[in-house]
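R.M. (postdoc): so does anyone remember the format we settled on? I'll just put the structure tokens first.
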């Protein structure tokens, strides 16, 4: 998931947890909103944000940051300064039925990822009206598919032909409007964890090969019957077991 889900959490991470993430736009936007929200004027907001950047970076190059900072200082001066947080996304029964009717698992996964992205963007911006503004590469990555460029194009084309999405080409990228959103229908799946969320769809569809990691609750595809953990947790647990084993051996 390449969308920032919680500006509130990011602000906390920056100011309290000593975090500094890779996405300059998210970092600057959150800080600018925060300091405007404190009632500061534009010049003071700029100084405060620069102070944070200097603290966070060993080498601060104003050339890299100034253009982005000035853009958000201007854009957000008169805007809403509340920080958003998307905690859950509800997928309804009608929406699940529309996806299931595609009857092609790869396309279904892509449709589900498009739906989740559009719903997140609706939640962040009430004027979004079901548009999906993420990159198609992000959608394919979230769908957990490994496809060639030609196949990717075909999927979006098929979904358009079936009337599930429509496209609007701008100069910079292709946006899709998701046409099968029915918020009023009964609740189907609630997504709270956006790692591997496409497996929520497979599980809702009745897929029995999806399991939760017993350590971190990540949804994963079950490869073996005895499997308990995701790859990352399994590695950490194995390392820890080895360490304990060596320690015991040494003590004896
Ligand atoms: Zn895990």
């Amino acid at each position: 998931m390449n969308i920032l889900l919680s500006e509130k959490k990011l602000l906390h991470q920056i100011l309290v947890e000593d975090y500094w993430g890779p996405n300059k736009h998210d970092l600057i936007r959150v800080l600018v909103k925060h300091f405007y929200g404190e009632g500061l004027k534009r010049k003071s907001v700029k100084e405060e944000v620069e102070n944070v950047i200097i603290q966070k970076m060993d080498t601060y190059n104003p050339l890299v940051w100034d253009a982005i900072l000035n853009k958000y200082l201007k854009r957000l001066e008169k805007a809403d300064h509340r920080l958003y947080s998307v905690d859950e996304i509800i997928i309804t029964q009608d929406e699940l039925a529309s996806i299931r009717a595609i009857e092609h698992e790869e396309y279904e996964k892509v449709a589900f990822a498009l739906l989740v992205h559009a719903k997140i963007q609706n939640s962040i911006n009430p004027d979004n009206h079901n548009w999906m503004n993420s990159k198609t590469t992000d959608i394919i990555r979230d769908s957990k598919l490994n496809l060639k460029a030609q196949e990717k194009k075909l999927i979006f084309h098929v979904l358009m032909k079936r009337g599930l999405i429509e496209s609007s080409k701008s100069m910079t990228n292709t946006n899709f409007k998701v046409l099968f959103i029915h918020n009023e229908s009964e609740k189907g799946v609630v997504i709270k964890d956006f790692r591997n969320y496409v497996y929520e769809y497979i599980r809702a569809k009745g897929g029995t090969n999806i399991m939760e990691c017993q350590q971190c609750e990540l949804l994963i595809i079950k490869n073996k019957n005895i499997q308990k953990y995701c790859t990352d947790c399994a590695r950490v647990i194995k390392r820890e077991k080895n360490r304990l084993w060596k320690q015991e051996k040494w003590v004896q």
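R.M.: ...and that's the designed sequence above, right after the tokens. Also worth knowing: The mean pLDDT is 92. The radius of gyration is 22 Å.
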